[in-house]
Amino acid sequence: MLVLTRRPGESIIVGENIVVTVIEIKGGQVRIGIDAPREVDVYREEIYEQVKQENLSAIANAEQIRRAVQDPSTP
Amino acid sequence: MTDEPTRDQREHKAVLEKALHFPDGLPGLPDLENFVIVELREDGAFQQLQSLDNIDVSIVVCVPWLFFPDYAPALSDIEQAELGLEKPDEAILFVPVSIDPDSHQIFLNLLGPFVVNSRTHKGRQLVLTGTSYTTRTPIELPGT
């Protein structure tokens, strides 16, 4: 992993057109600004991971879920 | 002489006309772009999002408002533009259904709804930000 040191107000550039700027550092938290083209999706990693894991779980258990919703009386 | 389409070609076309296209795939499954919706119950409460790219992959889904009438996920301007949504009523929305294999508790994923443009059949899975919705919201199943 590339590791860079930045101060508030300083930025890094990723590729041609993504700019990540450190806005503020306060109380153990860093506020980050991201300028990216609209077709580039930007997510908080843990939120994206949750949705991803939930998709994989929904697919792995699809048969059991299908049975449950089609006949709720017999789990 | 014009070639009449064969029965297979007609059926293939009928499937594709009803098929949903997710250009970006799904989070965790970027290669799955094409799906059809299959009804699972006569009352229309649950459907299955069936992959056309991998026949073994399907996700059970439902329309969330049956369980959560106040559910209001916000689409960003960018997401609306990407889906070509011109009017709010063009959007069809459904959410993934999951289960705890041990307790059999059923959950709705309100954080990652699927949104489809009913006019173009283009869709995507949203990852909502700035909400208190969760990926595992428990529900009680309605009887069939």
Largest interface summary? A-B, 29 and 38 residues
Number of domain modules of chain A: 2
**And the CATH topology of chain B?**
BH3618-like
Helix content class of chain B: 10-25%
Approximate helicity band of chain A? 25-40%
Query: Helix segment count of chain B?
Result: 2
Strands side by side in the biggest sheet of chain A: 1-2-3
Percent of residues in β-strands of chain B:
25-35%
Mean pLDDT of chain A: 92
* DSSP strand count of chain B: 9
Low-confidence stretches of chain B: none
Tell me, what's the shape of chain B?
Answer: globular
Distance between the termini of chain B: 52 Å
Oligomer: heterodimer
What is the CATH class of chain B? Mainly Beta
- Could you say how many structural domains of chain B there are in total? 1
What's the β-strand tally of chain A? 3
- Please give the alpha-carbon distance between the first and last residues of chain A: 47 Å
Question: How do the helices and strands line up, and which of them pair or pack?
Answer:
The complex is a heterodimer of chains A (75) and B (144).
Chain A: E1 11-14, E2 18-26, E3 29-35, H1 45-60, H2 62-70
Antiparallel strand pairs in A: 1-2, 2-3
Chain B: H1 7-18, E1 20-21, E2 34-39, E3 46-51, E4 58-62, H2 77-82, E5 91-99, E6 106-108, E7 114-117, E8 123-125, E9 137-139
Antiparallel strand pairs in B: 1-2, 2-3, 3-4, 4-5, 5-6, 5-7, 6-9, 7-8
Feature tags:
heterodimer, A: 75 residues, alpha+beta, 2 helices, 27% strand, elongated, B: 144 residues, BH3618-like, 12% helix
The gist of it:
The complex is a heterodimer of chains A (75) and B (144). Chain A is an alpha+beta fold and 75 residues long.
Provide a descriptive summary of the structure in words.
- The complex is a heterodimer of chains A (75) and B (144).
- With 75 residues, chain A is of the alpha+beta class.
- Chain A folds into 2 domains: 1-40, no CATH class; 43-75.
- In chain A, 33% of the residues lie in helices and 27% in strands.
- Chain A is built from 2 helices and 3 strands; from the N terminus they run βββαα.
- Chain A has helices at 45-60, 62-70; strands at residues 11-14, 18-26, 29-35.
- The longest helix of chain A has 16 residues, at 45-60.
- Chain A is elongated, with a radius of gyration of 21 Å.
- The mean pLDDT of chain A is 92.
- With 144 residues, chain B is of the alpha+beta class.
- Chain B has one domain: BH3618-like.
- The longest helix of chain B is centred in the N-terminal third of the chain and has 12 residues, at 7-18.
- The chains are: A alpha+beta (75), B alpha+beta (144).
- The interface between A and B is medium-sized, with 29 and 38 residues.
